[in-house]
Amino acid sequence: MSNADPQNARILHWSVYGQSGEPPAERVVPSTDMLEATIKEPITEAWEQTIPAKDIPKLLLGYQAQAMEDKWMIYADGPDAEGRCDIHMLRSWTGHKMVTAQFVVKVDQEGAIANEDAHFTAITREVHWSPWSHADAVEQTLEVFRWVMGVELPTATAGQGGSTGEMS
């Protein structure tokens, strides 16, 4: 069978993304292991992507794997006083951090999130996971959001960006 075979495509999709998830009732609180997971040699690149206001709460809730068929653990930090947030995506079986995506929401003086669209500004991935490029990281992130979290972001602004070459 070839990779174009629909059955192979479904199996490959399931092996990467797992089963479609249900949103948690409460915001995911990361475990100590999740907080300690790092991207060993990160590269941060610009990512201009609109987030519709209706989807911001779903992203901030995250996703908690419940079964072996759940392939992702997702939690968010923020927003801080300037509205900056990070979404951390880890593989549920291994705990490897795959992506941290940064976005900004508008917040008032009390820290409440405005009912306005937000924007991803950057995406951080492992630099040495070849051939995993910036475009691959964005594509996988968008599909995790869509399939696992039920967040379908508009694709018109999924732009390219330059590297900041951030290393830790």
Overall domain count: 1
- State the secondary-structure class: alpha+beta
As residue ranges, the low-confidence spans are: 157-168
Number of helices, where a helix is a run of at least 4 consecutive DSSP H or I residues:
4
State the assembly state of the protein chains: single chain
What is the number of strand segments? 5
**Strand arrangement, major sheet:** 1-5-4-3-2
Compute the CA-based radius of gyration: 16 Å
Textual characterization of the structure:
- The protein is 23% helix and 24% strand.
- It is α+β, with helices and mostly antiparallel strands and 168 residues long.
- It has one domain.
- The longest helix is centred in the C-terminal third of the chain and has 16 residues, at 134-149.
- Residues 157-168 have low confidence and may be disordered.
